Amino acid sequence: MNCLICRENIEDGLLTKHLRSHKTTIKDYCLKYINRKCLYSGQPIEFINYKQYNNDIFANRNNMVLYLKKAERGEAEGIIKNLLGIRKIDKAILYLPGQTETRASEFIPSPLLCDQININYNQMGQQSGLKTRYNYFQKLSCHSVLKEELKIAVDNREQKDITISAKKIHMTLNVGDYTVLNQELFNNIYIDRKEPLDFIASMTSQIDRIKKELIRAREIGAYLIFLCEKPLTHMLNLENSDYYKRYTKVTGKYLFNNVKELSQEFPETCQFAFVPEGKKIGEFIKTLFLIKNDLRMVDLQFFIDKREL
Ligand SMILES: [Zn+2]
Q1: Phi and psi for 25 in degrees, rounded to 5?
Q2: Per-residue CA distances from 126 to 100, 118, 122, 134, 168 (Å)
Q3: Terminus of the chain with fewer CB atoms < 10 Å: N or C?
C-alpha cells in the first residue's frame, strides 16, 4: 500500500514503523488520512486497530440494521456477503453463524434480519464460503396428540425439580439433563438446562468440562441443546445488571465469545437457546420435545426471536 502522507510504497506490517518518520501514530493517521465514515449515519468509524478500522463499514450494530432495512436488495446482499466474508477470514469460522452467534457479534446481520428483508441468509453464507446448518424456511409443527403420555427422562444429577406437565422418569443420562423417552419422539436430542449463573460458569471457568461433555455427545451421535433460563438480551448485557456484578466479573462479550467458539467447534453437536421472557422453563422444554421438525436443523433462537416459539 502507499503511505497517504508521502505516497511511498510500504510493505504490509511496516506502516506503524514508517509513520514514525512522519511523527504520527497509526490511530491519528487512520482518523486523519483514511477518515472512514459509517455508511448509514456518516459519523466517523471508531479506531480500535488498523484491521478493524479498515473493515468496519458501520459505526454500530443498530446502524447496520437500519441501513440494511432500507437498502436495495442487491446492495444489501453485497454488504451481507462482505460482512460474512470478513468474519470468515478474521475469525477463521467454517459455519454460517446462527441467530445466537450473530446477535453476540457486532457486525453480522442475523438470520432474522435477513428473513425480515427477504434475503436468503443461507445463500449469503454459501456464497461467502460458509457451511450451513439450519433450515430457515421451514414452519415448525408440533405433535398435539400422542399415542401415549409424554415421558421425559430427567438425569439423576439434575438438582432442580422443575415443573413439567409430563411423566418424569429419573435415570442417569450420558449427556444433558433432559430427553424424551416416547419412541415416536426420541431423536437422541438432549437438553442441558442452565440457570444464568451456571451458564456463565459453564461457558467460562468450567468450559473444559463442557467440551468433554460435547466430545462424549459427538461420539454417541447425541445432540445437545444448551437452554439458558433467561432471555438472550438479558445474558448479552450481563455487565449492566447489578445482580450479576455481585457474583461475577464476566462480561457478556467474553461469555459469548466462548459460546461462539463452541458453536463453531461442535457445529453438528450443539446449539444455544435462551428461554423467552415470560415463559416457564418446564413448559418450554416440553414444547421443544414436541416439535416434529428435526431440531438439529432448527435454529431455535431464530424461532424464539421470531416469536414462533
Ligand atoms: Zn509516508
Answers
A1: -95, 165
A2: 19, 16, 6, 12, 42
A3: N
Domains of the chain listed by start with CATH number = 36-137 (no CATH), 151-305 (3.40.50.10130)
Instruction: Give tens-digit pLDDT for 139-169.
Output: 999 998 787 899 999 999 998 999 999 999 9
pLDDT for residue 171 is more than 90: yes
| Beta strands in 166-229, from DSSP E residues, in sequence order | 167-171, 178-180, 189-194, 223-228
Q: What is the pLDDT of residue 261?
A: 96
The amino acid sitting at 211 is K
Q: How far is the CA of 34 from the centre of ligand 1 (A)?
A: 13
CB 230 within 8 A of CB 285: no
Ligand 1 centre and the CA of 4: distance in Å?
Answer: 6
State mean pLDDT over 58-72: 97
